[in-house]
Amino acid sequence: MKKREFLKTLGKGSLAIVSSHTLLQACIPKETGSTVSEVKNLSPNTKNWTWVTPEKGLSADQWKRKLSLVKDSGIDAILLEVYNGNHTYYDNNRLPVEEKLLEKLVPICKELGLEFHAWMWTMPCNNEKIVKEHPDWYAVNGLGQSAATHPAYVDYYKFLCPCHPEAQEFVRQNVEALAQINDIDGVHLDYVRLPDVILAEALQPKYDIIQDREYPQYDYCYSQYCRDQFKKKTGIDPLKDLKDPSANQEWRQFRYDAITNLVNNKLVPEAKKYNKKVTAAVFPNWESVRQQWGNWHLDAYLPMLYHNFYNEDINWIREHTEKGIARLQDKKPVYSGLYIPSLSPKELQQAYEAALQGGAGGISIFSMNQVSEEHWRALAEVAAKS
């Protein structure tokens, strides 16, 4: 998880990780070895995705060269980050616009035969105007501190409360603004969760913390809205009446259900009104972020199986692909998310094969910006065999 400093190294992708990346430079195949263009007959049996973080100022021709390489390497769909919790990369009248990048890339993707999915941050909101005018919209930790003023780990972890009706409406409107764009294929939900009550093991040293249990400063959401709803249901105020809230299964499930309710009853229906697909970047350690995504009614699931964050080997990707599929109520495709900075080209091929062995319909790479020429060739080769 990158919290601006660390996140800048780890990259971003919804694991609690964020950072700005530079887009990969146009790749020119080497004269030795097979080039991407020489690897033909890519399999129609799998579907592969890549997350794409923005880079301002590139021309349409520059983007077309990049996306042509992506397509030739076995990628079928891109997930462009169009809303980062503060400003947007598409035209709208609700939030600050950084660049109209969506409008530039959609026709290119259509021409190349790439699906285009609009990737949005869901629960974090770092817009200064909203923070100032609506502090009650924000999640609260077990110490009674608001994420608006005391965000966990890093400053951009200003998560909204999943129970606040106005916060729910704000997020719904964000989905609506994207879903009503005619030529996109879908809306991709990121950060659709609460802050990590326990970080992945390999990330904890970056913050000089040891999380051997759930500590209140990282445990959300104890907003008045969540507490009132839980008390109405159970007669218990989790902040005042529970000696150890982390031990109460009802309170834990309530927060899982709060996120699930937002997804299934607010966000998915909004996208479906416009006939858009809905996908989400999700965690393998879903309990730690109150993200019971096996109960969500999505068109596809993209678990971020960044094995190095958990001090695991590549086989862990197969194992957690299987586990993710097993917990799904709706038997829809799972595409295993792979973290490129932790994989050599050969390891990328091994991770790809591990994902398919676990039952994945393909992979999703984080992120296009970090893929080397050698990685693209390796992906094209393994994708052609699948």
TrEMBL record:
Keywords: Signal
InterPro entries linked to this entry: Divisome_Glycosyl_Hydrolase (IPR052177), GH (IPR017853), GHL10 (IPR003790)
Gene3D superfamilies reported in the protein's UniProt record: Glycosidases
Domain Glycosyl hydrolase-like: 61-320
PANTHER family: GLYCOSYL HYDROLASE DIGH
Name of this protein: Tat (Twin-arginine translocation) pathway signal sequence domain protein
